[in-house]
Every structure is written in structure tokens, then in C-alpha cells.
Amino acid sequence: MANMDKKKTPIPEQEPQVRNKNFEEVALGYTEEMAKNEAARCLNCKNKPCVEGCPVNVRIPEFIGKISEGDYEAAYEILTSTNSLPAVCGRVCPQESQCEAKCVRGIKGEPVGIGRLERFAADRHITCAEKKACPTIQKNGVKVAVVGSGPAGLTCAGDLAMNGFDVTVFESLHDAGGVLIYGIPEFRLPKSIVKKEVEQLQGYGITIKTDMVIGKTMTIDELFADGYEAVFIGSGAGLPQFLNIEGESLLGVYSANEYLTRINLMKSYKDGYDTPAVKSKRVAVVGGGNVAMDAARCAQRMGAEKVYIIYRRSMDELPARSEEVHHAIEEGIEFQLLRNPVKIIGDENSRVVGIECVEMELGEPDASGRRRPIAKEGSNFVIDVDTVIISVGTSPNPLIKSTTKGLEANKHGCLVADENGATTREGVFAGGDAVTGAATVILAAGAGKTAASAMMKYLEEKKKK
Amino acid sequence: MFRIATKKKLNDAVTLMEIEAPEIAKKALAGQFIIFKIDEFGERVPLTIADTDPVRGTVTIIFQIVGRSTMLLDQLNVGDTIADFVGPLGIPTHIEGIKKVCIVGGGVGCAIAYPSAKALFNAGAEVDIIAGFRSQDIVILEDEMKKVCKNYYLMTDDGTAGEKGFTTTKLKSLLEAGNQYDMVIAIGPIIMMKLLCDTAKPFNVPCTVSLNPIMIDGTGMCGCCRVTVDGVMRFACVEGPDFDGHKVDFDELMKRNSIYKEREQHDREHVCKLTGGIRTHG
Ligand SMILES: Cc1cc2nc3c(=O)[nH]c(=O)nc-3n(C[C@H](O)[C@H](O)[C@H](O)COP(=O)(O)OP(=O)(O)OC[C@H]3O[C@@H](n4cnc5c(N)ncnc54)[C@H](O)[C@@H]3O)c2cc1C
Ligand SMILES: Cc1cc2nc3c(=O)[nH]c(=O)nc-3n(C[C@H](O)[C@H](O)[C@H](O)COP(=O)(O)OP(=O)(O)OC[C@H]3O[C@@H](n4cnc5c(N)ncnc54)[C@H](O)[C@@H]3O)c2cc1C
Ligand code: SF4
Ligand code: FES
Known about the structure:
The complex is a heterodimer. By secondary structure, chain A is α/β, with parallel strands linked by helices.
């Protein structure tokens, strides 16, 4: 019997005024009962519009059906047949603009909580499933290399390993997971979850080598010389952009990457870790994406009295996931919309004391389809802050491109790859943010998957020759 | 895990270690650096690659004990391991086309200057070295340096070894004596590098300096290591650490490096007093 409630089964969350002082996860997840209740809202539509909305076509009504039957392991297996990182995606995918946007239940009410159910099935597997012996995979002895251990690299590596390839993942940082580890904070995506999903993949026999900067420690050419027959580059888009305004070298100005890396990767929020934490009273975060929301909410949790988001367009254009914007507002972050920074102001010791902004209005749509922000002449004003976090985007790191002959990139620094992930260099494939520029976890994972099958085809044909 | 192969105290405040890291040993060139992280709780700290032995697969680091991480590193002994050791990072020092060079090292900066001197010497350049220290008891690498140069000038602030005076004094007198250098390579405290550049400027000698901003990832991801060179923002970890000294904004770098000073002061006292540097948790 379908549950005809117009609203999603609410997910228990920590109280805003409690959670904005700790790094524990915000959403606590469904109980079995809640999950079954929500699963019963799915109509098991014949034409499955939700599936179309998912970049990797998760078999949504099927896995939800298994949850309503109480066969959670089966639900998990259906999920992982197309998505290697369900516990991650269930937490961080922008469902409201993907699967849930297409769900027919959303026409007259709220869509099915597909993300919440995905998370439930994945978590349930992690905590409850008996440790099954990993399937023994017939190895084919062919060595392939994966550069970068973000969602693109991990997914690609997983698919290749399941098909018998001897996969090594090279990661420049000291921990695997990419942005999932160094960028997205604990309270949104616990690192233990990422570790579990990484371990799950290692169960298939993948070797992960950390502390390996490809392009420095080893080049792509050296990987080939070392016997790797194909390479996947999933090196992400980690190079931070700045605003190029006066005052960006002052003490108290951070890129969002630095700020988040200190906190998440280096755990400076925890006692006993050596990396110094950034201490702030009043913080301005410039930007309106997920990264900006994460930085602002971290600043709040690190003890700031006042945190502003400064964004040059309006609420409607905020690129961040709506759930996270909503969480940020609940936690007390103040949104300064239609404002653009023009200068960061320092005191005689070069410490930040304020940020000067202008008011903006929206004009005609620009190339991005969004209305173009225009500065209002003479509307300058100053917000008193001691910390400014710049979160206005990242681009791919040129390190690998600059050390690999024949590997082309476009004018934004993104690697050129066809729809299968093949780059301009034979045997080298790429995907994720390194190709698209900063995007999403699921698109990166999808690109990793596509590339994995293209690589298998390539290696198959190469063998024939 | 990376094993410590040898350890040698160069003086009270400076230690040399050889670390087993064959991949890095194979690749490293003069001017490049590594980042180490001592254990799960450690921070990521950059150190220059002072030397390598590709056959034994070791990388030499020489570090000054200044704060928590270098204190903890100094507590380790041969056979102990470090959790992380990444490299070689940064762009190697440009040595092509340099026929006559004056390399100036200040204090532990000599450890960073030494590999460049060696590389230039081996490439056939005429190398003069000015090594400056506060006093005789902290002089390092004297024998090594002497082997890779034509003239070695030792300077101490208090005159307890070599000549009394600063590295700038010596550079000025060498330039005034008519020495024509293609390049001055200056490595040491920021203020020393700044003054050396000022000294060389009137003689129209190009200066290369090796900058040491605070770093985290060392691969261009965090933007923490940004320095202003010729009015442009540059990331020292991937575009440096060597830059044209006549164009560097040294004052800004000095300010940026002071940001965690208070905490470090506290750490120094804390780590020493409590445990002599041994971790009490984990
Ligand atoms: C703070 C933040 C919040 C976000 N929030 C969301 C969200 O809520 N939902 C969502 O869908 N997306 C979100 N994103 C975007 C999402 O995380 C990325 O699109 C996704 O991680 C891209 O995956 P990737 O595998 O291409 O690259 P990355 O995750 O960037 O991984 C690349 C990996 O490659 C490594 N690497 C780079 N160069 C080298 C090299 N030369 N040698 C070896 N290794 C190298 C890097 O260290 C890194 O580990 C967020 C991003 C950030 C920064
Ligand atoms: C490219 C590069 C090469 C270097 N090579 C050497 C070397 O060969 N030998 C040597 O003795 N030192 C070297 N340094 C300096 C060394 O990294 C710092 O002294 C380091 O901070 C010491 O760590 P600590 O925790 O013991 O001291 P801390 O107490 O943490 O810091 C001491 C001083 O170093 C600065 N500092 C703090 N953290 C960092 C960081 N992550 N990166 C850089 N500076 C920081 C601080 O501003 C402070 O003034 C190098 C620095 C760079 C950037
Ligand atoms: S569109 Fe919504 S109701 Fe229909 S199958 Fe998908 S999740 Fe279920
Ligand atoms: S150290 Fe992070 S960008 Fe240079």
C-alpha cells in the first residue's frame, strides 16, 4: 500500500544551535521504520523518470522496492551495480536537481527522499552487513594506473579491478578520497564513511599509493615505462582562484581550499593535531557554492561570532545545494546577497580588519544563462571582519599536463577528452573535475565509470594487435 | 612509512637525516623540496632536499629545530619511520648558462644552498660561496661546501670563525673588487635575502632567492604559499621556490610567515617542558 503523504519522511537532524558548535554529522539518518515508510511513497513508475535524472542511472525504484521489502542488502547491491559510492552520494548529491527533480511524487508535494534512502541502504550495509568474503576475481595480469583518488579515480579503479585488472591508484596527498577527504567537512560527510568506501574498493585488490605526485615523483611516461598499459587521470580541479583585488595577501585571507584543508584533512579542529587552526571572530566568505557554504559553516563551528556569505547574485542563483543553504541559514550564517567585494582592508600589522563591498543589481542574462550582476556606482560599504575566505572557484592543476607530452588542455586548463574519456594521448584517459572543471561527485564518479569501460575496450583491442 | 637511514647532529639546533625514499632519490634535482608529515597527528612541513643517493635510495634533509614538527622529527632515530614523505616538489634551480656564480647561504640556509652549489660546480661553473653564521659553534657543511667551489668565504657575526661580518659585507666587497657574477643565489633568513638583493642591485647582478612561505599541500592546491613577485601572485610550491630576488615582495613574505608565531612560541615551551618532544597520545 503506497504511502500518500505529500511530505518526505523527515530525517532526524541535530538542532541547529547545537550542531553549529560541533563537527558531528548534521543529519542522523533514517531508522528502518522511517526508511520503510519513505520507501512506501515510491510508486514504482513504469517509465522511471527519476532514473533519467540520475547521472549514473541508479536503478531507483528497484532499490527502493527492496527497502520496502526489508531486503536491505539487496537494495545495496542494486545501488552498487551502478554507483560505487552510495554512502557518499546519498549524502552529498544535489538530488533536488537530479533524480528527485524528476520524481512524479514531486508534482503534488515533495518527491520521494531518494537520497535519504540511498544513504540508509549504504549505511545499513556498512554497519550491519556480515563481512562477506570479497569475491575472488580472476586476475588478468594487465597493469593499469589511476591518478588521483577522488570519486572519479576511485570509481574507475573499482570497475577495472572488478574486471580483473591489476590497478594502482596514485594519490599526491597522504590520504585517499580527494575532495571527499580534504574539502567536504566531517559534519556533512564523516571521513569514516569515505574510509569505509575506500576499503570496500581495496577489497577488490586495488593498491593505493599515497604521497605520489604524478608529474613530480613519477611522470605519466614513467608509468608506461613501468609497465602500466593504460592510465586514467582523475586529478580533480584543485587550483584555487582568487579575486585579484587589493588586500588578498593580508594576514587573515585564505582560499577556501586552505581553510578547509587545514580543518578537514589536517584535522586542526581536533585537539592533539599539530596543524594550527585559524582563529576568527568575524568571517566573510566570498562565493555562493557548496564550497562557500562548507567554509562558512566550518568557521561557525570553529567559534566565530559572526559569519557572512558574500555573493554577487541573489538567493535564486546560489549554486550551492539547497539543503546546505537551508542548513547554513538555520545555523545562523548571514547572507549578504547582491554584494561584491572590491577590496580587503588591513591594519598597520597587515591583519585583515574589513572587506569593502559594492551593492549589485541583476541585468540581462549572460553566457551562463544567469542574470549578469552589475555594480551600483557609489554604493560601497565596509563589513568589519578579521578573516576573509575566498571561495570563487577552482581550476585543474597544470602539473600533469605540463609534464606529459601530447596531453592537451583547453583554455580553462581542463584536459581535452572525448565522451569516453580518451585524451589526446594514446592510452591516457581522464575524467571528473580534471576534464569538466569543478562539478559534482556523481558526475566525476560517472566519468570514472565510462572511462573504465573505454579503457577495457582499448586494452582488449591493443592485445589483439 | 619512510625509514630513517642515518642521523647526524650538525650542531645543537641543526640535524641531518637520510631518509629511505627511493622514488624521490631517483628524481630529485637541486632546489627541490619534500614535505614530511611525522605521523597521524603531524602537520605537513617542507624541507629542501640537501642531497640524494639514488643507489642507496636515500634523500638527505638538514633541518633547524624551530618548532613542534622539527622537534618531533629530531626525537626520532635511525630505524624509526616517518608517516609521509612526498616529493620532489618545486621547480629545480635553473643552472643552465651560468658560468660564474656567487652562492650565499645564511645559517641553515646553507643546507638549501649546498645542492645548488654542487649542481653548478658539477656542471662546470665557477662557484664562489659565502656562508654566514652567528657564531663558530653553529657552522655547518664547511667541508662539503669547500669541495664544490673555488672560493669559500666563511663569515660570522661575532668573528669567532672566518671573517667577522655579515654575508652582505662580503658580497659587497667581492663585487667592488670587480668580480663579475652571472648570478647571485641567496638562501637564508628572509631579511638576509632582501639585503643581499639590495647589495647586488647597484652592480646589476641578477639574484635568485629561495622562498620559504608556509605551505600545506605543496602541489598548488591550497594557495597558502602565495607570494608577490613583480606585483603578481605566485604559488611558491609549484612556481618556485626560486624567484627573481629583485622582484620579490620580501616585506609581505615576512609578515605572512609570522602568522602562527604566537602558537609556535607556546608550542616550543610546551613540547620541551612536557615530554622532551615525545607524543603523549595516539
Ligand atoms: C568544499 C567542497 C564541497 C563540495 N560539495 C559537494 C557536494 O555537496 N555535492 C557534490 O556533488 N559535489 C560537491 N563538491 C564537488 C565534488 O567534490 C567534486 O566535483 C568531486 O570531488 C570531483 O571528483 P574528482 O575525482 O574529479 O576530483 P577530486 O575529488 O578533486 O580528487 C582528485 C584527487 O587527485 C589528487 N591529485 C591531483 N593531482 C595529482 C597528481 N598530480 N598526482 C597524484 N594525485 C593527484 C588530489 O589530491 C585528489 O585527491 C564539493 C567540492 C568542494 C571542494
Ligand atoms: C620550500 C621550503 C624549503 C625549506 N627547507 C628547509 C630546510 O632545508 N631546512 C630547514 O631547517 N627549514 C626549511 N624550511 C623551513 C621549514 O619548513 C620551517 O621552518 C618549518 O615550519 C619548521 O616546522 P616546525 O613545526 O618545526 O616549526 P614551526 O614552529 O611550525 O614554524 C617555524 C617557522 O616556520 C614557519 N612555518 C610554519 N609552518 C610552515 C610550513 N608548513 N611551511 C613553511 N614555513 C612554515 C613559521 O612561520 C615559523 O616562523 C623550508 C621551507 C620551505 C617553504
Ligand atoms: S519517479 Fe519517484 S515515485 Fe516514480 S519510481 Fe522514481 S522515485 Fe518512485
Ligand atoms: S602549498 Fe598549497 S598551494 Fe602551495
